[in-house]
Each structure stands twice: as C-alpha cells, then as structure tokens.
Design brief:
Blueprint: H1 2-6, H2 35-38, H3 42-56, H4 58-63
C-alpha cells in the first residue's frame, strides 16, 4: 500500500523507505508510526536516510 500511494504523487522523484528490524513474518510486531520518534534506532533507520535524500535534492529545490 505504501509504495502504491507514491505513484499518486505529482513527481516520480520519490524514495521508498520502509525501515524494518524484524523479518517480514514478524511485521505485526515491527516498527510502527510512533517508532519514528521513540525507537532507539530511529536516527539510523529513518532520520539519516531522510536527511541524505533531502541533501541530495537541495540543489534541485534551489534551482526551481
């Protein structure tokens, strides 16, 4: 579902970040929405990849 919704955006320049700590079979017990802020690994699993993506697009935004 998450990947499908990105096809509805006006841009094709998207990043699919689906952080996972457990196997696919254990998805029910894996990361949830609040873990973006509360997980001990949130910096490396979520925020650092997001920052790298934003930094790599900083010049594109500045040019527009």
């Amino acid at each position: 579902m998450t990947i499908y919704t990105t096809t509805l955006l006006g841009s094709t320049d998207v990043m699919h970040l689906i952080p996972r700590k457990l196997s696919v079979d254990e998805a029910l017990h894996d990361l949830g929405h609040i873990d973006i802020f509360l997980s001990h690994d949130s910096q490396s699993l979520i925020w650092e990849p997001l920052l790298r993506w934003l930094e790599s697009h900083a010049n594109v935004v500045a040019m527009n």
